[in-house]
Write a structure and sequence with these properties.
With 170 residues, this protein is α+β, with helices and mostly antiparallel strands. It is 35% helix and 12% strand. A 5-stranded mixed β-sheet has the order 2-1-3-4-5. Helix 2 links the parallel strand 1 and strand 2. The two termini are 33 Å apart.
Length: 170
């Protein structure tokens, strides 16, 4: 394919995009003067807030955390998901990485929360009932992007592990 063919295709697609946006501007939704309503495709339209609970090498290990009832915590989270009417999902995963801050869970925003700027939030040391209560309260209020987390929960926020950096070949 020649470069002139590629450029004509790119310009054609850009022109289609401009025409689409012009059409959207002419046919504004109920969101206000000049506002464009976001286009949401597929499952993202109804994606629930999701709790990803680490149950890897350190998290969920009774020998490493003998005072924590890991099954009870998971049962509580799953019961809250069942009672949420589809607004909350819970899943478990293998090791998430920051084992020195176990038990780790990640609160992923709902589709609406993501559109409003919410991002996945990592919570460390989440094995006690108070943390579980705070997480469930936050998620019931909407979770990341839709509601502010409880102040006590923000003290347990951790940074996600960095991907391994690879050395460039010389």
């Amino acid at each position: 394919m020649s470069s002139s063919t590629v450029w004509s295709w790119v310009l054609h697609r850009a022109d289609e995009g401009r025409r689409y946006l012009d059409h959207r501007r002419r046919h504004r939704g109920a969101e206000g003067e000049g506002a464009l309503s976001p286009v949401v495709f597929g499952a993202a339209a109804t994606r629930p807030c999701t709790l990803v609970v680490c149950r890897g090498c350190c998290c969920g290990n009774a020998s490493k955390h003998p005072g924590v009832d890991h099954e009870w915590q998971l049962d509580r989270l799953r019961a809250a998901a069942a009672d949420s009417g589809g607004r909350l999902a819970v899943r478990t995963t293998d090791c998430l990485g920051p084992c020195d801050q176990a038990n780790v869970l990640v609160v992923q925003p709902s589709g609406e929360g993501r559109r409003r700027g919410g991002r996945a939030t990592w919570v460390g040391w989440s094995g006690d009932d108070d943390c579980t209560d705070d997480v469930l309260t936050w998620v019931a209020a909407g979770g990341p992007g839709l509601a502010e987390p409880p102040a006590t929960l923000t003290l347990q926020f951790i940074r996600p592990p960095r991907p391994e950096l690879r050395r460039a070949r010389r």
